[in-house]
Design goal:
This protein is mainly alpha-helical and about 140 residues long. The chain contains 5 helices and 2 strands, in the order ααααββα. It has a two-stranded antiparallel ribbon with strand order 1-2.
């Protein structure tokens, strides 16, 4: 699912007007793409913690602060498309390598939410799926995990 979703982003990011917000209060396709790229990177980091530490507590992530500090609105769409694809490949490969009891390993967010690697995977995949819908307005059937 990670790679199928990632494959849809380059066309959205390089389309005419991808950097233009449809409304002042809604991110552009470019800004959503930057967020999805960074979410892949963040979840790869957190998954690495879960696989190498006992019940790690993840550092907090302020996605809005990251968007402003990272100047999402001014990034190069082609570069973001390539970076999103690479980040998705890295995360998909890490999930593909999870086996057996590793799916039951745990990790926690600062707000107290606790995940196993399995529930973490399910929680994560929702993010790029719903953001692609935010950009395209097109829903697609999600295969069972």
């Amino acid at each position: 699912m990670i790679m199928a979703n990632a494959a849809a982003w380059p066309a959205q990011l390089t389309a005419p007007g991808a950097a233009r917000r449809p409304r002042p209060d809604k991110w552009s396709a470019l800004e959503y793409g930057c967020h999805v790229r960074d979410a892949h990177r963040l979840y790869d980091y957190r998954l690495g913690l879960m696989l190498t530490q006992d019940d790690p507590l993840y550092p907090n992530w302020d996605q809005d602060e990251t968007a402003v500090a990272g100047r999402y609105d001014a990034q190069d769409p082609a570069a973001v498309a390539a970076e999103l694809t690479a980040a998705a490949q890295t995360l998909a490969a890490r999930f593909a390598a999870v086996a057996g009891d590793q799916w039951a390993r745990t990790g926690r967010r600062g707000d107290g939410a606790s995940f196993t690697v399995e529930t973490f995977a399910r929680y994560f995949v929702h993010d790029p799926v719903h953001h692609l819908y935010d950009v395209t307005g097109v829903r697609y059937a999600q295969p069972e995990l």
